């Protein structure tokens, strides 16, 4: 970093009290700084068609480059837990994600990364069976076994999509 600064500036002045791998420097020339401040908007997203958040957070955050969806649990839009098989619960999670993505102006087809959380890995194959019906484009995915999930559910799914 300092070699680049030295080549681009007529004189580089280091602050000796902060000299380290993150040293502060300033130039005495009119060369543009080597860093830029990037300002991005981040808009909270809420969907009336998805299960209400189980805590103090939004359904998603939309930026110009990505939509970061909070984990969805198997609930209906009223917040009632979905009972049934792991496939039915997985479908409920994905329906909630679909509603959130649509509220953000995106879709399931634009998902690029999925994180699935299961309280019992013996449900892995059954969850995959339902999951593969919705994510036919095969986005990147992780599936993690966890000790427990909010409201005592068996599965939670979150994702990242492009707008």
| Element-by-element helix/strand order | HEEEEEHEHEE
Q: CATH top level of the largest domain?
A: Alpha Beta
- How many helices? 3
**Computed CA radius of gyration, to the nearest angstrom:** 23 Å
Within the largest sheet, what's the order of strands?
A: 3-4-5-8-6-7
Could you please say which CATH topology of the largest domain applies here?
Answer: 60s Ribosomal Protein L30, Chain: A
Number of domains: 2
Can you walk through the features of this model?
- This protein is an alpha+beta fold and 163 residues long.
- It folds into two domains: 1-37, no CATH class; 43-161, 60s Ribosomal Protein L30, Chain: A, CATH 3.30.1330.40.
- It has three helices and eight strands, in the order αβββββαβαββ.
- It has helices at residues 2-8, 86-103, 124-134, and strands spanning 12-14, 25-27, 43-45, 60-62, 67-72, 111-118, 140-145, 155-161.
- The strands form two sheets. It has a six-stranded mixed beta sheet with strand order 3-4-5-8-6-7, with helices on one face. A two-stranded antiparallel ribbon has the order 1-2.
- Strand 4 (60-62) and strand 5 (67-72) form a beta hairpin.
- Helix 2 (86-103) runs parallel beside helix 3 (124-134).
- It is globular and about 50 Å long.
- The relative contact order is 0.17.
- InterPro entries: RidA (IPR006056), RutC-like_sf (IPR035959), YjgF/YER057c/UK114 (IPR006175).
- It holds the Pfam family Ribonuc_L-PSP.
- Belongs to the RutC family.
- This is Endoribonuclease L-PSP-domain-containing protein.
- GO terms for molecular function: deaminase activity.
């Amino acid at each position: 970093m300092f070699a680049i600064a030295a080549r681009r500036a007529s004189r580089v002045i280091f602050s000796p009290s902060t000299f380290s791998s993150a040293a502060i420097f300033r130039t005495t020339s009119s060369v543009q700084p080597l860093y830029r401040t990037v300002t991005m908007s981040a808009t909270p997203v809420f969907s009336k068609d998805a299960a209400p958040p189980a805590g103090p957070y939004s359904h998603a955050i939309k930026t110009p480059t990505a939509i970061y969806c909070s984990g969805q649990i198997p609930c209906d839009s009223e917040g009632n837990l979905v009972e049934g098989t792991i496939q039915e619960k997985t479908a409920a999670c994905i329906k909630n994600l679909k509603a959130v993505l649509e509220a953000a102006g995106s879709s399931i087809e634009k998902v690029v990364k999925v994180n699935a959380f299961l309280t019992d890995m013996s449900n892995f194959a059954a969850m995959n069976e339902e999951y593969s019906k919705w994510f036919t484009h095969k986005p990147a995915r992780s599936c993690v076994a966890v000790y427990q999930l909010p409201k005592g559910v068996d599965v939670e799914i979150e994702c990242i999509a492009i707008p």
